[in-house]
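Why do we bother with a discrete structure alphabet at all? Because it lets us treat a fold like text: something you can write down, compare, and reason about line by line. To make this less abstract, here is a complete entry for SDR family oxidoreductase. Read it the way you would read a sentence in a foreign language you are learning: slowly, and without expecting to understand everything at once.
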Amino acid sequence: MILVTGATGTIGRHLVRAFADAGTPFRALVRDEAKGKELGCDFVVGDFDQPASIAAALDGVDRLLLNSGGALPVAGRQPMVQQQFAVIDAARAAEVSRVVKVSAWRPAPDAKLSVRAHWEIEQYLKESGLEWSILQPTGYMQNFFTGEGGFARSGTLAGPYGEGRVAYIDAYDIAACAAVLLTGSRGAGMTYALTGAEALMHEEIATKLGVPFRDLPPEEAARDLRARGLPGWFVEDLLWLYADMASGGLSEVTMAVGDLTGRAPRTFDEFLAANEAFTSMS
């Protein structure tokens, strides 16, 4: 039995659908019962902040997808760290045979808060004694439509992107890679840097989206993000990420998706074609 955490999220929904179509035994962890029912699969209600609920969700589980988003920092620390530490501890107590963690693109101890949190969790998982695999995706294509990162601004793709290229990935491909690692014997003790098929400039992406492109100075982008009500820590994280993008830090294209799934990852055009609802930006 596989437990899928983050089951109603960007990656989780694709993974749930893939497992259901394949007849793979799995259970979805959700925080909201109504959303669990919408998934149309076996689910359990639980919360990373409620250890007893996680222990119950892991009953009979032998493989775990560890995936959750960040939250408002407390005392300068990202709550995701302690939350995922607790899930790893619960997985060890439940004698789970493998944990597949969805991380961030090559996290490091000197990264900003949210990305550094993933580095801390990776280290903890590696030292846990559990068999593990780690997925490190670049930015998600879905973020142009569903994220809070300021990608869309009054029908314009605007941000301090510069001329840096980014090898964005479709969450569909991340889920496909996770499915391989959760259902087979491959990938024990391996870290996979996941990218899409191509590295694009944001001006090129704007053209594909059919919207104007505007490259903003970082100071203007910060003012705009704060005006939208985003918390200061998130704005700082985003500016750090924008700078990394502009410098080419997310431009590498890897072969990991193809190596794991046996097919090429989706291009941006293929992502748009598969998501007809995402044909314009509001």
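What the structure line is telling us, in plain words: The longest strand covers residues 132-137. The chain has twelve helices and twelve strands.
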